[in-house]
Amino acid sequence: MDVVLPVPVLVVEDEEIIQLRLRKILLDLGYANDVLLFAKNVKEALNIIQQQPISLALIDLGLPDGHGTEIIEKIRLLDSNTLILVISAWSTQESLFGAIKAGATGYVLKERDDAEVLISIRSILRGGAPIDPFIAREILKQIAISETEQPVEVGSPVNDADQSILTSREKEILGLVAQGLSNREIAEKLFVSRYTVESHIKHIYRKLAVTKRTKAVSAARSLGIL
User: Fold this and answer.
1) What's this model's pTM, rounded to 2 decimal places?
2) Taking the CA atoms of the chain, what radius of gyration do you get in angstroms?
3) What pLDDT does 207 receive?
């Protein structure tokens, strides 16, 4: 490679076969075994980053004892310059936004072949911010759909067919609203950005033809949604 390889590298992954796969990719990039540090859970990862600064981190999100965003936030708190690439099986918009909000530099899916993962690492080493194409396409689709949706006039009636109008995520968020959680608290609980929560709540308002949180909860209960 024509870039200086940042060391040491922390790999957080609980599956041994994936650890071996990532080790091989890093060795192919020019890394030496003695600069590669491996952790299989949140506890081990936090112990490592407390003992020494990390220059590059490859982090899985779903770990046996917690969530990878906890590690990302801790690394970012200790060093704002650390390069952090999420390599996860989770392909949702919420997972991406949660990781980016925590401080990840890029996001790639585990299902990609070795060459694609290597390209993502190479991109991040060169100052890029790689986002898995599948997730990027899904986000673009959702943006396109939201742009073409017709707004519901405030005050317009909601009929029986509208009882299933909310998505499962919107119902989940509305349920947390009903519990009295703030947008920030909901975002933290669901590992998403506050912007994502606010966007969902706006959609809920429009679909239920309301303008306030209390009215949204009341309308949902009257429709049997909550």
Assistant:
1) 0.65
2) 21
3) 84
State the residue for tokens 């309301």.
210
147-150 long-range contacts, Cβ below 8 Å, gap at least 24? 149/206
When mean pLDDT is compared across 2-11, 134-143, 177-186, 204-213, the lowest value belongs to 134-143
Distance CA 120, CA 182 (A): 36
pLDDT band of 155, cuts 50, 70, 90: very low
Q: What is the pLDDT of residue 44?
A: 98
Question: Could you report the per-residue pLDDT of 22-58, keeping only the tens digit for each?
Answer: 999 999 999 999 999 999 999 999 999 999 999 999 9
pLDDT of residue 119: 95
In one-letter notation, the amino acid at residue 140 is: L
Q: In CATH, what class is 145-223?
A: mainly alpha
CATH classification code of 9-136: 3.40.50.2300
Domain edges within the chain: 9-136, 145-223
